[in-house]
Amino acid sequence: MLRTGSLVLRALLAVGLMLGFYALALAVALGLLYIPYAEMAYLNRLNIRLALFCLAAAGIVLWSAVPRPDRFEAPGPELTPSSHPDLFRVVESVRTDTRQSAPKSVYLVLDVNAWVAERGGYMGIGSRRVMALGLPLMQVLTVDQLRAVLAHEFGHYYGGDTSLGPWIQKTRMGILRTIVSLGERWIRLPFILYAKLFFRITNAVSRQQEFAADGLAARVVGPEALIEGLKQIHKAGAAFGVFWQSEYVPALRCEVRPPLAPGFAAFLQHKRIATGVETSLQEELASAKTDPYDSHPPLPERCAALARFERSSNGGDSRPAITLLNNVPELERDLLGIAVSQKLKKARAVAWPQVPGLVWLPNWRAEASRQAHALHGAVIADAASLCREPQTVARELVFRPGYLPDREQRYAEARRFIGIALTVALVDAGWEMQGDLGDPITCTREAETIEPFALVAKFQSGELTPEAWRIWCEKLGISALALSGAQGSQTVQAESDAASPKVGQ
Q1: What residues make up the domain containing 394?
Q2: Chain CA centroid to CA 42, Å
Q3: Could you give the number of structural domains in the chain?
Q4: What is the per-residue pLDDT for 1?
Q5: Based on the domain organization, do 286 and 378 belong to the same domain?
């Protein structure tokens, strides 16, 4: 009974807010059209420019407010019961426990997230239920935690949230489209004010829907699994963007495709990354506050609400959720082809240990060759002095068009380039370049290891003096190696940001 009453109230609110927007749009449009009419009727004149402005603005408002059909495109490869029976046994079990109808389609997506919706059709009419499961999400959750997340998502079906979603979303898009279409015209001010009211109210409702969906998951699966799942999602969400931009995108730019899910797992297990994401989680649990424009409650509030539910004896399946999927390498290939670019389906599959040599080294060698004039005549023994006084190198660097760095940025770019040139020079002299996920690049020869970008930082801080560096170089027999240019013949055309040092260097 509570569910029915709550759903009715939400439906009435959604309809009321939608009608309020369309009433506002119609009133503004009619008001604009009335201006030239009133000028003619009462003043016996017509300002052509004003009339044209009013007609154009009224047309923009009316056209922008009209809802568009929902043209749904698959966000990733579709998962089917025949291809992934283990996953669908879990989905079916949760569906039965929550007494809901199954989604028509389940998709794999490139996100640390899971979601359900009713997509397609017009204002929800003719739509179908769909579910999306993130590949990196399944990498970090256990099967029990995935069951809890699925129960939460089925809770949105249970609460009628997905039925109301198209109404809210279409109204939201209509408001934003109207504001954008009106540009800087003063007439957009009523819509900006209505947008603030609309977003505050609908996001407040959304936060209550999240609590309700959490409650259903806690009753069906147990609160512990969902609490731990939410924490894992927060930690993985904090790391995935860094992993994607610093480790994976540079590989894709070179048309090679290392394993995504195992790579992300290894990245999260790296000591530095693990410490960072754990710190991020603890800060979130200690200080996160509700923002009136947030669609989800803050993590500590969700965990506190879940902790009030009775602990459950369900569970016991601590397998990684990704083991429920079959043929993960093929799924990754198809997912990248849909979510990023069809060209990536043809990218060469490689192992992560191959990435430094296939991605970073060609990029850096190309940059070293392109900017060789900046280090003309310099040898490796000069690296410390150049980092301490980078102005000479900075003056000679050629930056990408449109980038106008200030002095400190030029100096930072000069030091970065010295690190690149040092790496390339060592590799061309026979040193082996290495760099596991999350680790800085190193150059190794027999028992000696050099970490070029860490050295640059030590040169800058004065921890390693130019004199001490020269002595070390003489000991290693590398003092006279040319620091400018690259001896190798491989060159790769790369974007300047793809040639940047790996994160943390």
Answers
A1: 352-499
A2: 57
A3: 2
A4: 34
A5: no
